[in-house]
Design the sequence.
């Protein structure tokens, strides 16, 4: 098989003073921090769909991306893309990739032919994985692109569509297990509604929960031990999505008894669309024990849709990695670049520039966050701010030893309440000091 990126050599670490655009400035895969290499801490992954199947089209224009496999089609194209994937990941020096089932193999005339196509490419991926050591971070099923999912998949009003989605997910779970996938993601792009005038929301959410329970049961049956992840997103394509944000998904999982089986795959751009910061969603997932993996990208505050840009904001990366470190790492999860080059960045080399920029951003953010955690300056401030709950009446509140009668008595017997400043500007300056030093 010919190389698809023959003019690109393996990307190496050259340090922050390097001017080489095809070299890492901050990501040193072999650098050891707290007993683990940076490669082990960050667990970077390439997103198959944006990197190898996205053409650069948008609602106003056709595809612009120039790829050496553009002259191919069908299964020949699928095989070429899989070879290109492993070459690309290997040249970046990464350990993982992610895919949807329909990214890697085309649909056939029916489910049987479609599954056969998928089987062929999965066997190729398995062979290449064994040869290179590159692994599957997570797999998933595309339950949103085909017109059959116009009304949703597991939440569809059509039971035949629910059945097809189940069959497709069954197969996706099988191939994810075959490839040693460490996680399986559910992204419910069509799981929601446009108007309540034609929607039975109760039934749709009940059916979505039934679907997830079926997946949990089947995973146990086939011995898939990877982590199940749900990826929150508030809108686009569906007006009201059932996986709006971390808080919404948490409520759903707890209502239906699924909270022990699922964690979250948090995407930065989705947090923005939900009206949250990236670190908010990561923090909320962490303190509730459901931070599983990260889709590393960023949006554009001037554009109201999911732009999926490569992450280059060091401040945001620092706050994100602070949450990850406080989480004890990402465990079986990773930092998946669910990001695409801009439509005007259409040459193959731009794929390397983009991933290098994103990796350096998160590597720098990780190092800054590690120092913040080590010194404990932020944590010490927060602990002091809430110190009134460590003794006296505050401790009684926390320990459940004070009710309304006791609290009323306490207020009547004590002096005027005195609050202290929250020092937000001081702390933002402190964060800048770590970033800029």
Sequence:
């Amino acid at each position: 098989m010919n190389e698809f990126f023959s003019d690109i050599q393996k990307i190496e670490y050259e340090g922050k003073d390097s001017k080489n655009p095809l070299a890492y400035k901050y990501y040193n895969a072999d650098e050891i921090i707290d007993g683990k290499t940076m490669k082990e801490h960050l667990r970077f992954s390439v997103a198959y769909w944006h990197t190898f199947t996205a053409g650069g089209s948008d609602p106003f224009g056709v595809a612009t991306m120039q790829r050496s496999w553009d002259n191919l089609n069908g299964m020949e194209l699928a095989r070429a893309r899989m070879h290109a994937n492993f070459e690309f990941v290997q040249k970046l020096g990464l350990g993982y990739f992610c895919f949807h089932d329909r990214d890697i193999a085309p649909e056939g005339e029916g489910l049987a032919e479609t599954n056969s196509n998928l089987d062929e490419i999965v066997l190729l991926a398995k062979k290449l994985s064994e040869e290179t050591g590159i692994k599957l971070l997570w797999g998933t099923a595309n339950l949103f692109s085909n017109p059959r999912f116009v009304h949703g998949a597991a939440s569809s009003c059509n039971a035949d569509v629910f059945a097809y989605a189940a069959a497709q997910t069954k197969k996706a779970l099988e191939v994810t297990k075959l490839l040693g996938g460490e996680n399986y993601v559910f992204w419910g792009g069509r799981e929601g509604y446009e108007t309540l005038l034609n929607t039975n929301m109760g039934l749709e959410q009940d059916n979505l929960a039934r679907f997830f329970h079926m997946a949990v049961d089947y995973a146990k049956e086939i011995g898939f031990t990877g982590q199940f992840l749900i990826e929150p997103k508030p809108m686009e394509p569906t007006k009201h999505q059932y996986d709006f944000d971390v808080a919404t998904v948490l409520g759903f999982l707890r209502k239906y008894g699924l909270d022990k089986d699922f964690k979250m795959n948090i995407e930065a751009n989705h947090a923005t669309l939900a009206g949250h910061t990236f670190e908010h969603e990561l923090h909320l997932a962490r303190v509730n024990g459901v931070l599983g993996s990260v889709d590393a990208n960023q949006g554009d505050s001037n554009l109201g849709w999911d732009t999926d840009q490569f992450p280059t904001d060091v401040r945001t990366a620092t706050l994100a990695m602070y949450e990850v470190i406080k989480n004890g790492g990402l465990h079986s999860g990773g930092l998946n670049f669910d990001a695409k080059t801009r439509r005007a960045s259409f040459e193959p080399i731009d794929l390397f520039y983009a991933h290098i920029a994103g990796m350096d951003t998160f590597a720098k953010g990780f190092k800054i966050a590690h120092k913040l955690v080590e010194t404990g300056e932020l944590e010490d401030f927060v602990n002091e701010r809430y110190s009134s709950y460590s003794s006296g009446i505050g401790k009684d509140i926390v320990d459940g030893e004070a009710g309304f009668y006791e609290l009323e008595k306490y207020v009547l017997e004590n002096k005027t309440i005195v609050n202290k400043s929250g020092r937000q500007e001081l702390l933002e300056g402190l964060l800048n000091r770590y970033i800029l030093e």
Observations:
- The chain has a mean pLDDT of 97.
- The CA atoms of residues 293 and 333 lie 4 Å apart.
